[in-house]
């Protein structure tokens, strides 16, 4: 018996398998050609969003059109004006140019479409994910009681960790609500001054209110443990209940690491849940020379870790790890007789959906498993060390140049700086805008101490010193045009 | 300049592009062969989770191994014991065998790795997503004021819609928390008796408490509008504040549709936000003969819609639509100078991250855009109608057979039934377990009116009447072995 053509009637007489084969080979060649020549493209588009949107404006098509025509459209209208993360002059946000085997594994995951909500819908997917999570747990130095799952990214990882914290400190808030749970209305979440917006958002989401978030003062761009201790004591004196501290391992703006070990000391002394947003920086656990930056992470109660950042996975590959797995199990509750079935004779339920915000969840673990098996963890450490070394090299160039000023010494692969002399208040932002529109390179901007600065993240291990020189020269040239 | 080998040093001297080409072609052939012969495999594995887990138990590999060896492992150890949704005897949960062009588009999305958080990280991705969302909005009959985004699936879509409802009814709950927002502690969420667990979970998550969820009594497996009206009036008399009603379009257990138009009448009369969990059933909007099932959905305030169910997309492809876009914008709040930049001269921000729980979010819209362009919406309607017709055919067979009993007439492609005579309390569950383990087919089970029943979802348009006969004969044969 062969597959009929239901799933692909618009490809003439092709079966789904034939379509996949024919168009798949063509696509693979186009993807490989794209990757081989990506550095000949402008890094990103010069078009404004409204202009690009007009290309696609059309009513819902009721009838289809030939696949080749649609795919030509994709390459001409979608890919051409995409942003190209594999370009070595891309130095923007923390998004990776993914590893080729990870991209291929993602294609297989899409075909298999295993659903990680329950074991029976992903018999091997569930156990592969459990193994990958176990590797992350052990790299983090967590004990055997720890549990974790892959999630859609740092935002959901932070939410999950802090939901577990809420329930641990205010048991019953899930069922009774925070207004009816003793003391929950006095809850305070302490965060790094430079924490990612998704951390602050958890309090708004969870019903504690974003006003319940207190920023701990920084010292040199990092959480100040003494200030944290003061804040905790002051809040307690005021009758507030600090239920969690969210420290940052690799802040978005500067890539600096909070002193996790000292933060852990304070959290232990005050009996407060310690969450680490390691979306960017937890991957530094794999690197011998850089592991010291995350010393103390093993004392956290929960960790967010995004393999789609510094492990070069395609989105979405996030992870949340919780030291005491019981807290993760208590973070969510559900009754669903159509879905969760106990298996006789098994010593625990394998259904990951018990512990995840998502129900349907794709087999993102496959690409991480394939990549760790093929490349090995040391290879990832090497990629990471390369990007940090290049960032240090950029810092040295900036410090030596009379017309540039680094804002900080880099600890990771993120660096903020300014081009001098600053001509007017929004010079840096305008410089960035024009430089990016030139297509020659692509960087970002942020605000540090109320001052606009330039910012790069060197995500591409192919970015070399030669590209750094091109960056500085390019900024100089664009800068001269701004009056 | 060519790409160096940083990204692929373990593939010998291959560049990333060469790796993608060489291993990509091999993978495409394997994927096509898999699809061409999937019906020769057992539908799922007979192994227990613990057995499968032992295959993968190993410490984190520090060094890699050859790619061919890893991929052989994937086919032998992962794929062989996966569950095969493309098999026509798969009749289980609501997970699709994805369309081949959607699978291919997913591979390209992984390579490009556009991040839909902000426009500048997905210049064409953002506008393609906006266009796809606009198509869903228009299919739903929503006005031009509506906004929406793709999300990871129904759970996050339900959460997002109901977060918008919380803020609309209790303004300030995001910032002040539900304990400090006037009246928020009196909030009640009304849901269908058969609603998906993710709907009830939103109340626990949002700090309102899962106790704040009230199930509206069913009539014939559907929300009873008169009972809803009674419940609303009673709750108000008791001083509670019903802030949202979540109706279900295609319930998980039975695939039946709540009478949305009558529910909308009640919500309008009582001034309550109407959310529709159309994860399964909103796709019926595309079908002329079946659109009547979702009549009234255009009057909802928010809709959850999963293209990864009845539009045959790979996971994760969910969508949330909100009638008045301002409410969606108010559902989340953030400050993030490193990320969200206003663009001078644009009339609105294109950054979708303002409206999404996720920050990093993959370009899932590409596969839906490619598929709608190539296949056309009518083709999707045809696939959907085929699966409903086959489900009706199964119902007729069950009704005619002396040893089977359908639990309800199917409205969609989900049907619950029992095999008779039931030999003991857990006969149906045991029958299901043994039948699935045989590899001949794969179905699910649930509990209706405290009674265990068999349940199928016909997700595969290749499933024909011949397969239905195999299902019934297979259940009979397995049933005879149970004493």
What would a concise description of this structure say?
The structure is a homodimer of 483-residue chains. By secondary structure, the first copy, chain A, is α/β, with parallel strands linked by helices.
Q: Gyration radius of chain A, to the nearest Å?
A: 24 Å
Which chains share the greatest interface?
A-B, 187 and 187 residues
Unreliable residue runs of chain A: 1-6
Q: What is the CATH T-level topology of the largest domain in chain A?
A: Aspartate Aminotransferase, domain 2
Compressed to H and E, one letter per element, the order of chain A equals HHHHHEHHEHEEEHEHEEHEHHHEEHEEH
- Can you identify the CATH class of the largest domain in chain A? Alpha Beta
Q: Biggest sheet of chain A: strands, sense, closure?
A: 7 strands, mixed
Mean pLDDT of chain A: 94
End-to-end distance of chain A: 72 Å
CATH superfamily of the largest domain in chain A: Type I PLP-dependent aspartate aminotransferase-like (Major domain)
Classify the secondary structure makeup of chain A into a structural class.
Answer: alpha/beta
User: Can you tell me the CATH architecture of the largest domain in chain A?
Assistant: 3-Layer(aba) Sandwich
**What oligomeric state do the depicted chains represent?**
homodimer
How many E strands of chain A?
13
Order of strands side by side in the largest beta sheet of chain A?
1-9-8-7-6-2-3
